[in-house]
Amino acid sequence: MSYLYDVLFDNNSVSAPFELLGALDISGISDFYQGVVDNDNFGGSINFSATGGHINTSDLSHVDGGVHKTGLNSFTYPIGDGGYYRLAGTSNSDQKVFINQSSFTKTQPTLPSRFTRRRFRSY
Fold this sequence. Notes:
Oligomer: single chain
């Protein structure tokens, strides 16, 4: 597990230049400036801690795969698939510990897309 405060994703050499194999825990701001972070095809994981957030998320720069969020505050997930950023979010929770994982999967253009969310609570 790599613990990061602020992180900048800035690489447009290919559509998904960041191949995430390990685990990242982000407690500051993740700047999705350029480049998709692919953890879906490489088995990596990204967790945003209670103080973690992101900026500049777009079709050109987001997470292709699941994202975890720990904490009680509302959060917009920086997720997408197939070159499309499709935000999803949660609202404030009154639970003591709240971990949420979300991912987006783009399907064929004639079929609806799928959004997956899993919730884990600890009391």
